[in-house]
Amino acid sequence: MASIPNTVLCRLEDITDGEGKGFEIERDGKVLDIFVVRRGATVLGYHNVCPHVASPLNWANGSFMTLDRKYILCDTHGAEFRIEDGHCISGPCMGDRLTPLKVELRGDEVVLIEL
Ligand code: FES
Question: What is the pTM of this model?
């Protein structure tokens, strides 16, 4: 478990292209669930909390994505979110969005910059 921002989460190759990977981050004594989606050499990070009823998006099967990998999917009630900005485009929280966090690629390492 990573404990502070500005820390290496994993290597780029640890995230399958088009998929997401979850991480636990400790902050102020609390454990936060986050995830990072990879699109080629681009990485985008979000808190793993659905804006609908605040459940983790991947509780059912561990996956963060729709089958076609075009959208982030919430397993609970099927909300779909755009990868690039976390905006919900279908489902019960349409118009809402995931909470972003700052991640970047440094060499081949995925680094959490800011929660
Ligand atoms: S909790 Fe995510 S769509 Fe309901």
Answer: 0.93
Tens digit of pLDDT for each residue in 33-79? 999 999 999 999 999 999 999 999 998 778 999 999 999 999 999 99
Residue nearest to atom 3 of ligand 1 (CA): 77
For 107, residues 6+ apart whose C-beta sits below 8 A from its C-beta are none
Domain spans of the chain?
A: 7-103
Q: Which residues line ligand 1 (CB under 6 A)?
A: 50, 52-53, 55, 74, 76-77, 79, 91-93
Q: φ and ψ at 46, to 5 degrees?
A: -145, 155
Q: Which numbered atom of ligand 1 lies nearest the CA of 54?
A: 1
CATH 2.102.10.10 fits 7-103, yes or no: yes
